[in-house]
Design a protein that fits this description.
The N and C termini lie far apart (53 Å). β4 (52-56) and β5 (61-66) form a beta hairpin. Strands 1-8-3-6 form a four-stranded antiparallel sheet. The protein has a four-stranded antiparallel sheet with strand order 2-7-4-5, with no helix packed on it. The model has no long low-confidence stretch (mean pLDDT 86). It has helices spanning 13-22, 101-109, 112-146, and strands at residues 24-28, 33-35, 43-49, 52-56, 61-66, 72-73, 86-90, 94-100. It is α+β, with helices and mostly antiparallel strands. α1 (13-22) packs antiparallel against α2 and α2 (101-109) packs across α3 (112-146). It contains three helices and eight strands.
Length: 150
């Protein structure tokens, strides 16, 4: 399977293939949830096709839309959370690789160098999303400050 996923960049071909072999290809209809806020974290996903809306809080406020093949969904699985911190819902027909957290941990323990690269990639992804969140907050604050009476 040829898949460009930033989380897998730089790891050895053998370890990458073992992770992909451990994955199951899943399909989701529009409106179907990959996971919901508060569900136990057992899997993460790599998007192969479609668009997924990620939302936070009980009101389901939009936080992010993943729409590129290779996008990582459910990264909180990989940072020792016990429950998902948000919900992931398909906006259109979606195909994604579902990968068990514990299986990936087992594979990466057998190749510590690839494991370090995998988690550096994860840290970079989280950092990029954090910057986008800051930019979104600043753009909303800027709009409010520029309005009369704001």
């Amino acid at each position: 399977m040829t898949l460009h996923a930033q989380i897998l960049e730089g790891i050895t071909d053998a370890t990458r293939q073992r992770i992909l072999d451990a994955a199951s290809q899943e399909s989701y209809a529009p409106g179907e949830f990959l996971f919901r806020l508060g569900d136990p974290v057992l899997h993460f996903f790599i998007l192969t096709e479609g668009r997924v809306r990620l939302s936070l809080g009980r009101e389901g406020r939009l936080a992010y839309v993943d729409s590129h093949p290779g996008d990582l969904i459910g990264w909180s699985t990989l940072v020792e959370n016990e429950r998902y911190m948000g919900s992931a819902q398909s906006l259109v027909p979606v195909k994604a690789l579902r990968i068990e957290k514990h299986r990936v941990e087992e594979i990466l323990l057998q190749d510590p160098v690839s494991g370090m690269i995998f988690f550096k990639n994860l840290a970079a992804l989280i950092g990029r999303r954090l910057v986008k969140s800051y930019q979104a907050v600043l753009s909303v604050q800027g709009e409010r400050e520029s309005q009369p009476g704001g």
